[in-house]
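Researcher:
Attend to token order:
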Amino acid sequence: MGRGRQKAKHTKVARELKYFSPATDYSALERELTASHDHTDEEMSKWAEYADDDSYVHDDGSHRS
């Protein structure tokens, strides 16, 4: 396949993807977003060491004391 034909095919696919608009089930989205997230103590305990850790590095490279 020549470069021109290949580019045209890619352009066609990109245009189809750009304007593709699938049906959205807003009620399912609402159920997912409003569902209660009950975290077990086991799930929370594995992150506890990070919650109280004040020795992390900021984006600018400085340390928090």
